[in-house]
Write a structure and sequence with these properties.
alpha+beta; 16-stranded antiparallel beta sheet; four-stranded mixed beta sheet; 17% helix; 823 residues
Length: 823
């Protein structure tokens, strides 16, 4: 009814315009049956306050010396010209004086007021900010009936989309005495109560229960106390879509004639509504004969195998369309052709006969010609260099069009972390005349550099950290003064600098650099890192009472993307060296004076098909790694039982094996399930030497540590205190399992926010022989993640433990805070 009223107001406004055109001077002076010619002797303008009179005369089309007929077409046209400007509430032309055949005209205009400012009443500040973007009002805009009606409609639509179905809006006008012919508009909002759905009732359904049909409606949900992630507000557009989804559910089970006979939305009380839907299910149908027409590239048998539908199968329109056009696994007929260049391919299923409960379908195919790629362009990359983007693109000029390559390219661009994954877009531009296609990729830059400023407690001391990571760095422009804006960037390299200190007792510095495309030809990465740390009792160097440990090290790594078993695999090899130098340092180490060296090689094979790094919704990631030192003890005839600890561990030896996995599955909408499993074992070469006291696993807590002096690996398990699930000397074997449900609050790249609920468990053991996969410490809880481009991923979790761990813990919950990592 409100829309009808708006249309009626606009019609009345148009009629008012027509009536105004009849008013031309003093009618009793002119004979309308016998128009007379006059020469215009002068033109004046009255009634305007802010507009230029000469401009208005020019707009009218009349000019002094012009010969016109009165009544006549030129006067009517002049009035029409002035009305078209939208600046006046009334327009008339009056003959102010007539001397013989000379006539003097006066353009009498009623100028519409202009908007000086506007305000809101009854709307919150956040609502008002969003409405301002929608209504597009600005200072100086002419206030018309159309402007008022349109603004009211836009504001009411905004509130209806928020579930305020009974919201009403009016606009109050107030003269602004500070301006000429200006008005202040006040948008007065009466939101009333938000209307939710109390009950959705179905009638006539026997195949599916009411519950299953309600489940098919993705965005129209009735109010239930446990429904957290889906609102129960009523939105008409969503409701219409959900009715189609109900019918799709029937059609997926062979009920092709299912229809909604009637549906009624009515008030239950002042806050809720009910919906009644009456369904005619019809009869169940089956596929009979499926024939192909127009296919020359593939045989009927090959197409039948891809289609996956046999004679006697339930007639499912949903399955038929999925296997023809958009199967999530890309195993459909259209993908088969488009992955081989047939961009212009079309297939149309036609029911050619319905006999009883059986249907014959003919697949009419237009294959067209194979299309080759002509141009590949990128737009939107204002910071990242074209070559960095283009080297990730799998569609190349001259190649046959391949839809799978386009989909994979979008994933690769998202994985870079430089672009807003929600705004990635690709536009194929076919050229049927020459059988080519241009492909345009559209990206939107987002901030990717990060800064870390934090404080933590470790080893009984308060430690401050300052770090920066430049994730789209350009080393080749380092000495180019003009490229510092504020830093040289755009080449996709990563430079990280980090420092920790608590003053004179502890200092640590590390730096790393990664080039993802060494040489620029192939995706082979080079990583270099160095670090140096000093911990002491605070006494100055040279003092006999000084106690200190100095740790220095470096690593060099090379990575390579693999094409076998598939091109989601990669391999990374790294050589690293650490030197531990102790001077009268009698604390957690096995010796207080001397040194230890750790020279090791690590190799890892990873397969990652995660769709995007920040909030993934599909894909998986698996990694297996082996890290080992040379087996010094196997080539030595020393009696380790007689050696000091410093002699034993002058050269540390061990081998470490780890397996990590993560599966991400989208459940409903953006609700995501993430399942993770992690294992690790630290091995030895010689029983006589025993297990190395370095590189051990410490399980429990937030997974963070101020610093670690013995190469230990900190592994989080929420709900328990830090390191509480490992022996005091660390574990040599561990396992951990996590089930996590995630739902986004905001996917804005400048502040990605999502909530989560988790269940996880794990344990660690002192010796591998003690490993028991059923001896698990379990917990559950909730959390929140906020990704800010400048700071990375920030997390807050609250976990409740299920298992007692002796004197370390009762069964109270634990809060955990994390920076720059996921559990």
């Amino acid at each position: 009814m409100k829309k009808i009223a708006s249309v009626f107001a606009l019609i009345c406004f148009g009629l008012n315009t027509s009536w105004a055109q009849i008013s031309v001077g003093s009618e009793d002076q002119f004979d309308y049956s016998s128009p007379k010619e006059y020469e215009i002797g002068g033109i004046t303008v009255t009634g305007t306050q802010t507009l230029d009179e000469q401009v208005l005369i020019t707009v009218s089309g009349l000019k002094v010396g012009q010969t016109i007929k009165i009544p006549g077409e030129k006067v009517s046209q002049a009035i029409d010209n002035l009305w078209k400007q939208g600046l006046f509430a009334d327009v008339s032309i009056i003959a102010s004086k007539i001397q013989g055949n000379i006539i003097f005209l006066d353009l009498q205009l009623l100028e519409r007021p202009r908007l000086s400012k506007f305000a809101f009443s009854g709307a919150s500040k956040s609502e008002a900010d969003k409405i301002r973007e929608i209504i597009n009002l600005s200072r100086g805009k002419v206030i018309t009936e159309n402007l008022i009606v349109t603004t009211i409609d836009k504001v009411e639509t905004y509130y209806r989309d928020k579930g305020y179905l009974n919201a009403s809006v009016k606009i109050e006008e107030e003269v602004d005495s500070t301006g000429i012919n200006s008005k202040i508009l006040r948008v007065v909002v009466d939101k009333q109560k938000k209307i939710k759905i109390h009950r959705i009732n179905f009638e006539g359904n026997t195949v599916f229960s009411d519950k299953k049909l309600r489940g098919a409606m993705k965005d129209t949900k009735q109010k239930l106390f446990y429904r957290v992630f889906t609102a129960s507000k009523f939105l008409e557009d969503n409701y219409e879509k959900d009715k189609k989804k109900v019918l799709s559910k029937y059609q997926g089970k062979g009920y092709r004639d299912a229809m909604i006979v009637s549906d009624t939305v009515y008030s239950h009380n002042s806050k809720t509504i009910n919906i009644d839907i009456k369904i005619d299910e019809g009869m169940k149908y089956y596929f009979r004969e499926i024939t192909w027409l127009g296919n020359t590239k593939y045989t009927d048998e090959e197409l039948d195998a891809i289609l996956g539908i046999k004679k006697g199968d339930l007639y499912s329109q949903t399955l038929l369309e999925a296997n023809l056009y958009l199967n999530p696994s890309s195993k459909d007929i259209t993908s088969l052709y488009m992955d081989d260049g047939y961009l212009f391919f079309q297939v149309t299923p036609v029911e050619i006969q319905v006999a009883g409960d059986s249907i014959d379908v003919e697949m009419r195919i237009y294959e067209g010609k194979q299309a080759r790629i002509n141009k590949v362009t990128v737009k939107g990359n204002t910071k990242t260099n074209d070559r960095v983007v283009m080297r990730e693109i799998r569609t190349r000029p001259g190649q046959l069009f391949n839809r799978s390559d386009i989909i994979r390219t979008q994933r690769e661009l998202a994985q870079l972390g430089f672009f807003n994954a929600e705004k990635l877009n690709v536009t194929p531009k076919p050229n049927p005349a020459d059988g080519t296609v241009d492909i345009e990729y559209e990206v939107e830059e987002k901030a990717s550099d990060q800064i870390e400023v934090s404080g933590g407690w470790g080893a009984g001391q308060l430690v401050g950290t300052l770090g920066v990571s430049f994730n789209n760095f350009s080393a080749r422009n380092f000495f180019n003064r003009g490229a510092w804006t504020p830093l040289p960037s755009g080449d996709g390299q990563r430079l990280s600098l980090r420092g920790q200190t608590n003053g004179k007792f502890y200092q640590s510095y590390n730096a790393s650099f990664t080039e993802p495309w060494l040489g620029g030809k192939k995706p082979n990465s080079l990583s270099v890192s160095v670090f140096h740390s000093i911990q002491s009792n605070g006494v100055s160097r040279g003092d006999a009472s000084r106690q200190s440990i100095v740790i220095s090290g470096a690593s060099l790594g090379l990575g390579k993307r693999l094409t076998w078993p598939d091109d989601y695999f990669s391999i990374y090899n790294e050589v690293s060296f650490q030197n531990y130098n102790l001077d009268n340092y009698a604390t957690s180490f096995l010796f207080s004076n001397g040194y230890a060296n750790n020279l090791n090689f690590r190799t890892s094979i990873t397969r990652s098909s995660i769709d995007q790094p920040i909030y993934p919704r599909s894909g998986s990631q698996f990694s297996i790694s082996a890290q080992f030192t040379p087996p010094y003890s196997l080539f030595s005839d020393k009696d380790y039982s007689t050696l000091s600890a410093q002699e034993k561990y002058k050269w540390i030896e061990f081998h470490k094996w780890k397996f990590t996995s993560s599966w991400v599955t989208k459940l409903v909408g953006n609700l995501v399930l993430n399942v993770k499993a992690n294992f690790g074992i630290l091995g030895l070469y010689s029983g006589a030497l025993g297990q190395a006291p370095f590189e051990r696993f410490y399980l429990g807590g937030d997974g963070l540590s101020g610093f670690a002096l013995d190469g230990r690996e900190i592994i989080g398990l929420r709900g328990y205190p830090n390191n509480s699930l490992s022996p005091s000397a660390g574990g040599t074997v561990f396992d951990k399992f996590t089930f996590e449900m995630r739902y986004p609050v905001s996917l804005n790249p400048s502040a990605t926010v999502y909530g989560l609920a988790f269940v996880e468990g794990g344990n660690s053991w002192y010796r591998p022989v003690d490993f028991d996969p059923f001896d698990m410490k379990r917990s559950a809880g909730i959390g929140l993640r906020i990704y800010l481009p400048m700071f990375g991923l920030l997390g807050l979790d609250y976990g409740i433990p299920f298992d007692d761990i002796s004197s370390k813990l009762g069964k109270s919950g634990e809060f955990h805070f994390s920076i720059g990592q996921q559990f």
